[in-house]
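One chain given next:
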Amino acid sequence: MVTVNAGKKLVAIYVRKSRLKDADALEISRQLELLTDYADKNNMEYEIFSEEGSSEDWDGRPELQRMMMELRRNIYDGVLVTDQDRLTRDITDFGLFVRFMKNEGLMLFTLNKTYNFMNDDDIFTSGIQSEMDNHFMRMTKRKLRRGRIQAIKKGVYFGIAPYGYTKNEQKHLLPHPEESKVVQDIFNMYVHEGMNMTEIQEQLELRGIKNRKGKSINVRALSIILDNVAYRGVVHYELTGEDVITVEEAHPALVDAETFNKAQVLRVERRKVPQSQQKGLYTLSKLIVCSKCKQTLSFCMKYGNREGRAKLDKSSRHLYLLNCYASKGARAKAEMKGLERCSNNGIKISRLQEAILNKLREHLTEIDAEIEAVLSGSNDIISKVAQKQQELTLQYNQLDKQKKNVQDGFKMGIYEAEEAQAEIRTIKEAQLSIEQELKNLEGADAKSEVEKQKKLKAKIELLLSMEHTVNESNETSMRANKLLHDVIDKVWYWKEKNDVGGEKPFEISIEYK
């Protein structure tokens, strides 16, 4: 919770890593130093939003998106940045930002100028600055691109060296003493020994071979290795707006051209299902959530016994629900180092799937009771919903007109800037309250409620009539998964003990749409 002392402004400080490599590019630490000093000198309280990435796309900036959501809470006076190009150099994006700030009654503070977007002169000035920033970025990009193209043509490899290689001081790839042999073994097993990627993964695990982070080399990593033309000694880049750049014999090859090309042919031949299905979409995918830590749980195939694993007997494998820690991504696991893990345990999917289907059978009776209650008119509120929605919509539109009147009044000198901002905030708070009321009333009339329940019932009945598979990702499991997502928001799951020594009980609670 952000608290503000009386008489002080509250601003959102936004800092972002610069993509430019020139003397004027400020690091995040320096931006923060300048901005917090500015805030202190100008009697401002602040909350910091620090963007570690440098994406030009607004959707690729999580801290910017979080800041925009916070600004809608009507507790801020504005945004503070070193210069407006920290927000964006794109003219269209900046225009949208100006419109947002104007509607919210917020100011933009920079180290050199303050912009009030209810003032047309400030909008004009900021627009000119945005065009200059955009022109500067375009010129810089051209220079950087020309330099990169020349370097690529000389065999320079940009980015992290692929598994199997290291990079010298000139950024050329050189074979890694141990990793290069693993890459060669992977291609040999795939092309000459006829193994699929799952079997190769298992072989590497049996040999104790790990990736650079000490983790197992999974199927996705194997797919990337088999597809990477760098192992043939080639540097290949496709830059937007430029001809494809391919440099043969740019570095020592780990795989000969014939073996590499055979691998590509085999990959096409073995791709029997669409790409979307190769990722393993099971009946319960993306539905099971830990009731304690709220982690969405994922799945994996495990051998049912040691004998099956030793012989790599696929028929002895079963689909299991992973525990909370195992379901987390690599980044989340890294952030958890030293922290206590959730004690929720995994389970064989066949047990969980049967329990969920039984719950759905019970829910059919509840749906019939709900339909009967609506048809009998036992709920008097339903008949008044339409009238209430109309009244709220009228109130919302009237508040929109009031907001426009305040903005016009500022231009005419009737309101001071702070008075206009305070008035707009009050109006926005009222509108947010109305929006929530309208959302709560959606689909509450008798006819639509009955139709909604009947459609829900039909989908559950279809689900229960299907012949469900457990250990396979196929068309049936994909269809069942889609139907479940139409019916269920999430399944809360908890299992206190693992199944060592015998199957242990578990708890589930279904949250319906």
